[in-house]
Specification:
Blueprint: H1 2-48, H2 52-61, H3 68-84, H4 90-93, H5 96-102, E1 104-109, E2 111-120, E3 124-125, H6 134-146, E4 161-169, E5 175-176, E6 179-188, H7 194-204, E7 208-211, E8 219-220, H8 226-234, E9 237-241, E10 256-258, H9 274-289
Parallel strand pairs: 1-9
Antiparallel strand pairs: 1-8, 1-10, 2-6, 2-7, 3-5, 4-6
Helix pairs in contact: 5-9, 8-9
Length: 293
């Protein structure tokens, strides 16, 4: 009996010691985490208070202790700042060289026309090879559209394009479809208008083609127009835009210009840099100053 009491006492004492060790270990880890956070917060505040030159010196000398990922982000930020010219005065940053790299003028723009095509065949049973398969007939149209040839070349814009982007046909796996519908995305330029392209496509297709609209026309600015002369005098780059904008609906000569990279459009996280906005303002002002009517 006495042995059992002594054994139970040993177990209880051992359990208490283990629990105390666990509590001490948890407390030690918690204190270390708090100390690390305080130290990082202190370093971040100290780093934030430095100017650009001091930050570079501290980083290079390793006196600011940052974790690996933070140092990578910091080096990338400093690299971006050097590329963007943030370390230079504003009058040097917003120079003609910077503007021509980031501000371009679209003096021509492709038009857009969407066609709805419907081709009729004859229904039949697939097992007996009956009827006229509307899908096969539509495939002939699509091949003909893909082989269209455009001989006239635009100075600013790529050649016109016609792409079949949607197709719909069939109701059941064993029924030869009697109707096949498809959609054609047509991009015009200043050499081939929407109406001309419509006739060209109709001439090689069997389907009934109906344009949704022909009003989104291509545009181009004459070389002698005062807007074109202002672009040249400002030193900005002129180009032809393959994408559509409200410029297609403006019934008079116009240009499309603005800061930022067009390649970022319609992408996840689309953005524009502050430096690009600054250059855009300066470019607009210089452009307006060189307009002579």
């Amino acid at each position: 009996m006495i042995g059992m009491v002594l054994l139970q006492g040993f177990w209880i004492r051992n359990a208490i010691n283990l629990k105390e060790d666990s509590i001490k270990d948890s407390a030690f880890r918690a204190l270390n985490e708090v100390a690390d956070r305080v130290e990082k917060d202190y370093e971040a505040k100290a780093y934030k208070g430095l100017n650009g030159y001091e930050k570079r010196q501290q980083l290079n000398q390793g006196t600011i202790q940052l974790d690996y990922q933070a140092r990578i982000r910091l080096r990338n930020n400093l690299k971006l700042q050097r590329e963007e010219g943030f370390g230079e005065p504003l009058e040097n940053r917003i120079s003609l060289a910077f503007m021509t790299n980031y501000i371009k003028n679209a003096v021509a723009e492709r038009g857009l026309m969407v066609l709805d095509g419907e081709l009729r065949g004859k229904a039949g049973h697939a097992a007996r090879k009956e009827g006229l398969n509307a899908i096969y007939e539509a495939m002939k149209d699509m091949a003909a559209i893909a082989e269209l040839d455009f001989t006239d070349q635009s100075e600013w814009l790529p050649e016109p394009g016609a792409q079949v982007t949607m197709i719909s046909a069939g109701t059941r796996h064993n029924v030869v479809p009697d109707i096949c519908s498809y959609v054609v995305d047509v991009r015009s330029n200043d050499c081939y208008g929407n109406e001309q392209l419509l006739e060209m496509i109709r001439s090689v297709c069997r389907a009934e083609l109906t344009p949704r609209s022909t009003r989104l026309r291509a545009s181009g600015l004459d070389e002698k127009h005062f807007l074109m002369q202002a672009i040249a005098a400002t030193g900005l780059k002129a180009f032809g835009s393959s994408t559509l904008s409200d410029m297609a609906l403006i019934p008079f000569p116009s240009v499309k210009m603005g800061p930022g990279e067009s390649s970022r459009s319609h992408t996840a996280g689309e953005y524009i840099r502050k430096s690009e906005l600054e250059r855009g303002v300066e470019a607009y002002c210089r452009f307006l100053e060189h307009i002579e009517i």
